[in-house]
Amino acid sequence: MTELIERADAPATATTVELSMQQAINRALRVLLAEDPDTLVFGEDVGALGGVFRVTDGLQKEFGDQRVFDTPLAESAIMGMAVGLAMNGWRPVPELQFDGFAYPAIDQIVNQVARMNYRTRGAAPMPITLRLPSFGGIQAPEHHGESLEALFAHTPGLKVAAPSDAGDAYTLLLQSVRSDDPVVFMEPKARYWDRKPVQLLEPTTPIGTSRVVRPGRHATLIAWGAMVHRCLQVAELAAEDGVDLEVLDLRWLKPIDAAGLAASVARTKRAVVVHEAPLTAGLGAEVAALVTESCFRDLSAPVQRVTGFDVPYPAGPLEPQYLPTIDRVLLAVQRTLEY
Amino acid sequence: MPTRRPPSPQSPLRGEGGAARPVPSDDEPEGRGSIAVDHLPPDLTRALYRHMRTARDLDAEAIALQRQGVFPAYVSVRGQEAAQVASAAAMDPERDFVFPTYREMASALAYGVEMVGYMATHRALWHGGLYDVMASRFGAINAVVGGPVPHAVGWAVGERLRGDDGVALAYFGDGASSEGDVHEAMNFAGVMAAPVVFFCQNNQWALSVPNHRQVAGGSVRARAEGYGMPGVLVDGNDAGAVYQATAAAVARARRGEGPTLIEALTYRVEPHSTSDDPGRYRDEADTERWRRRDPLDLLRAALVEAGHADEESLAEVDAAARTRAEAIRDGVAAAPEPDGSELFTHVFRETTDELTRQRRVWQEEVEL
């Protein structure tokens, strides 16, 4: 149902294939490596192993160890090397293995990658796409379940994407890597293995375009990454009670589709934003502010936020209690409807 | 936190009682009072002198501009001209790439960077400078002192991937040698056999912290061994020695034999910046000893000794250097301030609706 809607503008010729998200991203990387000989894929274990999630599986074999290569284990140097490669005319697609390991590279990402075009007044663009397996939900060790989107979105000079399903991961990665601006591409690990029939489509909308993955009338659920799936589950359940929820997949966390948010919430008059990251100074606050600015007179209730708690990302058994649950989202929907 | 003192007696970099000391030589613990340049072509040695003289004069002009309030602050390169000019002169601005931090004015000058654009950063007209980084093949001025070092490795790896023979040179100091990025970069370069010259100007002071509280083991050069590359210690006040060491490292990298670490021992004879007060942390008697071992005086004497120049021709060079330094000074003092709209121009290649909206806010509420 949702696939039909999200792909409503798909060309009739687009073929449908059954793929997991990690396979779809692999397909996109193949396309990108094939179409532009300056594109390079590198990081820890991306070569012979094919990445810990097998996202780069087979790429080194197909494109050679000059285009797809392993680096030593040092995230800051991986990103620093990407800067130097970009200054030498390459289009780097580095991978940092897990979200929490982006912290050691924050100086290069924030102080160098994000600012080099600005610092050099456009002489040294940074067409770098950082692939970052992100978010939680897989009961992984510490530092393997973090949500860094607010940090990156807050950084001038970076763009940030977070796909929610296999087909859109393919399209968004093509768009990110072809962009001459640096993009942090946050891949929701919890959806990597979600397999379904998808269409592999070229990007047709500008960077910063959201999409309605389920239309509805009574409230808009706003989410990105794995939380889009969670919101679709909530919408199915709410529908049983006659509550018709719209689900808006933000896709781009910078730039945020303010017009898309406004269009949806102006219709539904209620908004609930859902994210895995902690509440305080999370991106939900930015979404709430944008919705309030654009829809203040239309809103029937304050924007609700359902998020992770302001605690370090917890270990396995506590993870389901930390991440926004279906019940918590339903309660927020109830609050906004009863306000 | 306590630090390990005193240094080991075999360390070449340490004096007693916490004071830094001049570079030693085999027979003269207080350092040599002269250098020789007979082994180098006269055209080269004269060019080194010309650049060093110009940098010295420009440095003095910059300090004066700061005193006059034209520059908010300035970081002097005085005493480091040989290390900077002679290393930059060993690079080929047509095919190589230099990655500076923030105290490489003399390198920029010797490498052919457009100097009004370079000095503009000290007038705070634009972080990173106003020269064209890519056309100059000289990276943007960077205040994160370890940050550009892995950039050099990436650039160099990119050169090898393309099958070209350019070499990257990364400048950093004894302070930056503590940064993780420097270590990561050296390891990457060692593993990938990247054509990089890691050029450490050890001026013995990381702002207020001396070598013995900065460099464990007493030697930056010694770290090369751990990263599988040659390490070279060179007298940073001997322009000929610096040139030779750098040229050898560049040639080695160009032959595909990988990176080299050079530690050029010199001394920061001026304060860290015009905002600094070195009387609070060091004995200026040591600084005076280093001032007497001035790299420009050493080279000048060596040029005459080798018959590469005489006093008359040097006086002409001095006059030309002064004229050029004054022209750069006048150029940077007269350079226009950037237009406020440039706040927004280069944030992205493809700007965003939100940034366009904020630019409108600027126009309506700030520009007026």
Can you offer a commentary on this structure?
Chain A contains 13 helices and 14 strands. The model of chain A is unreliable at 1-8 (pLDDT under 50). Chain A has 339 residues and is an alpha/beta fold. Chain A has helices spanning 2-6, 21-35, 59-63, 75-87, 106-113, 116-119, 149-153, 166-178, 226-240, 258-268, 283-295, 319-322, 326-338, and strands at residues 16-19, 39-43, 68-70, 91-95, 129-134, 159-161, 183-188, 196-199, 211-214, 219-223, 245-249, 252-254, 271-278, 304-308. In chain A, the strands form four sheets. Chain A has a five-stranded mixed β-sheet with strand order 9-11-10-13-14, sandwiched between helices. Chain A has a four-stranded mixed β-sheet with strand order 5-7-6-12. A three-stranded parallel β-sheet of chain A has the order 3-2-4, sandwiched between helices. Chain A is 37% helix and 19% strand. Chain A folds into two domains: 2-199, Rossmann fold; 211-338, Rossmann fold. With 368 residues, chain B is α/β, with parallel strands linked by helices. Chain B folds into two domains: 42-337, 3-Layer(aba) Sandwich (Rossmann fold); 339-368, no CATH class. In chain B, 44% of the residues lie in helices and 8% in strands. Chain B contains 14 helices and seven strands. Chain B has helices spanning 42-67, 81-89, 105-111, 115-119, 133-136, 148-162, 180-192, 223-226, 239-254, 284-292, 295-306, 311-334, 342-345, 353-367, and strands spanning 97-99, 168-173, 196-202, 205-206, 209-210, 231-235, 260-265. Chain B has a five-stranded parallel β-sheet, sandwiched between helices. In chain B, a hairpin with a 2-residue loop joins strand 4 and strand 5 (209-210). The longest helix of chain B has 26 residues, at 42-67. Chain B is globular, with a radius of gyration of 21 Å. The termini of chain B are far apart. In chain B, 50% of the residues are buried. Residues 1-30 of chain B have low confidence and may be disordered.
